[in-house]
Amino acid sequence: MARKILFLMLIAGMLLGCAVAGATPQVIHATGVYVMGDNDSPKIAKDAARQEAMRSAVEQAGVYVESYSRTQNMELTEDDVRMISGAVLKVTHEHAVPELTGNVLKYTVDLTAEVDTDAIDLKAMMDKRQEMERLQKERDELKRQNEELLQKYERASGQEKREIGHRLENQYTLGQIFDECVALIQRGEQHAAITKLTKVIRDRSVTDSPLAYAYYLRGRAYYELNSDEYALNDFASAEATPHDNAIYPIWKCHRYRGLIYYDRGNYQEAYNELKWAWEASPKDDQELWNELQKADEMANRAPSRREEPPAGSGDTIEDRFREAIGNILIDAIKGELNKSKSRGYEVYRGTPRPRIPV
Q1: Within this chain, do residues 162 and 218 fall inside the same structural domain, yes or no?
Q2: For 24-69, how does the pLDDT look when each residue is reduced to its tens digit (9 = 90+)?
Q3: Which residues, at least 6 apart from 270, have a Cβ–Cβ distance to it below 8 Å?
Q4: pLDDT tens, 136-173?
Q5: Which contiguous run of DSSP H or E holds residue 30?
Q6: Is 258 domain-assigned?
Q7: Rounded CA gap, 274 and 280, in Å?
């Protein structure tokens, strides 16, 4: 009897151990290496190696995400897996080591990260797929620009190399923070993203386009929380900060401002903002185009028909004739005035652009 009880306790312990193991986050180890060339900056070498390690970590995380999706009876595309993997991957430790082998100096970065499948709500993520895809495009674009700038840096020399190196160092440092914040927004941790971005905004060394992008991203986090006034304030601050759209897509402030105005029923303002966003965009976003067309349709809707005066109201035929003639003249004058106006008049830049054909 005692043996039977001991056996049952052992089985229960094994089952409990399996349950606990199932709840334990999956640990990932990834390594990135960058071989330094002549006059290369150690910081750039370390950051480039870290970016390579992160790419490897995301690929490994994809294996766990894909496996987990099958247990949830969900079919994910390759892009879905990569997008979710990048969002749920959390770096817990990293170590960078410079190594000199002969005359070759290289940086090796070892990352430890984890994927907690129990914390992944695939259905909620897929319900917000479009928004996650937008954020993922921003992450991919920033990484692509860093890679292109790194290639230019490797080919450059002298003063040009120093100038590109300075830009690249700044982009890598802030790019890592921005990438982490976008991932936080993707997985619904908006408050954590707001905290990180507020620290960036308060850092006096961060200026111009990176500062504008920090305001924009914080506005995005507020937008996801339905804190529209805070979002609008941050979008306005991003616009007021000196910037260009060469690296950071500050123009997207107009898109989300337009969506907020649309939700409020301010269709003309929504149209103006979305039109500005479309003109500033690469014009390859079908969803943005659809949003613009919908705002245009709502802004162009004819006013409700004038109510006919009730019978016996006392209006004579002469009164109605005068009213009709007056309305015709007023409509004619309005028509002439509208010829000189564009519904797409840009509120924030002052230069009207031609109307997008519908």
Answers
A1: yes
A2: 788 888 898 988 877 777 777 777 888 888 888 888 888 877 777 7
A3: 258, 259, 261, 262, 295, 298, 299
A4: 777 777 778 778 878 888 888 888 888 888 877 777 78
A5: strand 26-35
A6: no
A7: 10
The torsion angles phi and psi of 26, rounded to 5 degrees, stand at -75, 130
One-character DSSP codes across 199-220 = HHHH-TT--HHHHHHHHHHHHH
Q: Is residue 4 included in any domain, yes or no?
A: no
Query: 88 and 153 share a domain?
Result: no
CA-CA distances (angstroms) from residue 56 to 39, 81, 110, 138, 328?
A: 27, 14, 11, 19, 70
**Residues 134, 240 share a domain:** yes
> Are residues 117 and 133 located together in one domain of the fold?
no
DSSP secondary structure, 99-138, as one string:
EEETTEEEEEEEEEEEE-GGG--HHHHHHTHHHHHHHHHH
**Does 231 fall in a domain?**
yes
Residues 34 and 100 in one domain: yes
Please report how many Cα atoms fall inside a 13 Å half-sphere around the Cα of residue 130, on the Cβ side.
Answer: 6
Q: Do the strands 90-101 and 104-115 form a parallel or antiparallel pair, or are they unpaired?
A: antiparallel
Indicate if 196 and 147 belong to the same structural domain: yes
268 is a domain residue:
no
**Structural domain that includes position 208:** 128-250
Same domain, 111 and 139: no
Query: Do 106 and 136 belong together in one domain?
Result: no
**Number of domains observed in the structure of the chain:** 2
Tokens 């309305």 correspond to: 327
Cα angle, residue 227 at apex, residues 173 and 346 outer, rounded to 5°: 80
As given in the structure block, the two tokens for residue 137 are: 């495009």
Whole-structure pTM value: 0.63
Cα separations (Å) of 98 from 41, 110, 317? Answer: 12, 12, 95
Contact 83, 132 (CB under 8 A): yes
